[in-house]
Write a structure and sequence with these properties.
By secondary structure, the protein is α/β, with parallel strands linked by helices. 37% of the residues lie in helices and 18% in strands. It has one domain (3-141): Dehydroquinase, class II (Rossmann fold, 3-Layer(aba) Sandwich), CATH 3.40.50. The chain is globular.
Length: 143
């Protein structure tokens, strides 16, 4: 059975509270519950982590590699657009990773159109809300 890590970056703990027109009404707890339920149907295990701090996210990514986690789903939040440190953390491990976003970053402000993370990921799923995570989970489990 595979174990997949789901990593939520900054401000995602406020999902369901902030900018509901962009990110929806579901809380992060609701999203995590749906991810866990879907993992059961796929027959894989998920571990979920959220942090608002770049360093904590990097420590967690490195620990995923040390712990031999089978895949990483990361929503880097705004760090997607400028964190070379998170990019380097992902580039430095062999664990397959998929970048996800709730909103379609390409339909929004121009500063969101660049992801410095996507070149070191298997792929990117953006704009599908909860389904961004579920599709990534299915893909990593099948990989
Ligand atoms: C986000 C998109 C980012 O641009 C933004 O900074 C977020 C959330 C998303 O899931 O749509 O915090 O990653």
């Amino acid at each position: 059975m595979k174990t997949i890590a789901v990593i939520h970056g900054p401000n995602l703990n406020f999902t369901g509270v902030r900018e509901k027109a962009v990110y929806g009404n579901q809380s992060l707890q609701d999203i995590d519950d749906s991810i866990r339920a879907y993992a059961i149907t796929l027959g894989c295990k998920v571990v979920i982590f959220q942090s608002n701090s770049e360093g904590e996210l990097i420590d967690y990514i490195q620990n995923c590699f040390i712990d031999e986690i089978d895949g990483i789903i990361i929503n880097p939040g705004a760090y997607a657009h400028y964190s070379y440190a998170i990019r380097d953390a992902l580039a430095g491990i062999t664990t397959p990773c998929i970048e996800v976003h709730l909103s379609n970053i390409y339909k929004r402000e121009s500063f969101r159109h660049t992801s410095v993370i996507s070149p070191v990921c298997m792929g990117q799923i953006t704009g599908l809300g909860l389904n961004s995570y579920l599709l990534a989970l299915s893909a990593l489990n099948a990989d």
